[in-house]
């Protein structure tokens, strides 16, 4: 349906937050955070596999998702995430509680 452009335009911005998937370890760290956001009524999604960062960011841009969450080794170690505002390009290293507040 995406290739044929059959989805209604308003479905493009359905997700408010996109989680970048760097690999299995990062995915295991992010899934509980994603569930927490969904429990708070925040629509979000994670890329289904650990594709290249550029591909994942292009996906978020195409779907006009306003926020992207990234977590690599340093974020996991600090028990934080990096939140990127897609309209301004701002990156902020924040705690999970701050993420809920920001969104």
Helix content range of the residues, please?
A: 25-40%
What is the β-strand count? Answer: 5
**Major sheet attributes:** 5 strands, mixed
User: Outline, from the CA principal axes?
Assistant: globular
- Give me the strand/helix succession: EHEHEHEEH
In the CATH hierarchy, the third-tier topology is known as: Rossmann fold
If you had to describe this structure to a student in words, what would you say it looks like?
There is one protein chain. The protein is α/β, with parallel strands linked by helices. The chain has one domain: Anticodon-binding domain (Rossmann fold). The protein contains four helices and five strands, in the order E-H-E-H-E-H-E-E-H. The protein has a five-stranded mixed β-sheet.
Q: What attributes characterize this protein structure?
A:
4 helices; 103 residues; Rossmann fold; alpha/beta; globular; 38% helix
Concise summary:
The chain is an alpha/beta fold and 103 residues long.
Provide the fold topology.
Layout: E1 17-19, H1 24-39, E2 44-46, H2 53-62, E3 67-70, H3 73-78, E4 80-85, E5 91-95, H4 96-102
Parallel strand pairs: 1-2, 1-3
Antiparallel strand pairs: 3-4, 4-5
């Amino acid at each position: 349906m995406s290739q044929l452009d059959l989805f209604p335009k308003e479905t493009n911005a359905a997700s408010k937050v996109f989680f970048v998937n760097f690999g299995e370890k990062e995915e295991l760290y992010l899934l509980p955070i994603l569930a927490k956001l969904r429990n708070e009524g925040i629509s979000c999604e994670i890329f289904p596999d650990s594709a290249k960062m550029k591909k994942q960011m292009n996906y978020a841009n195409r779907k006009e998702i306003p926020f992207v969450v990234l977590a690599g080794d340093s974020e996991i170690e600090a028990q934080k995430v990096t939140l990127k505002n897609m309209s301004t390009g701002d990156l902020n290293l924040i705690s999970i509680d701050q993420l809920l507040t920001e969104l």
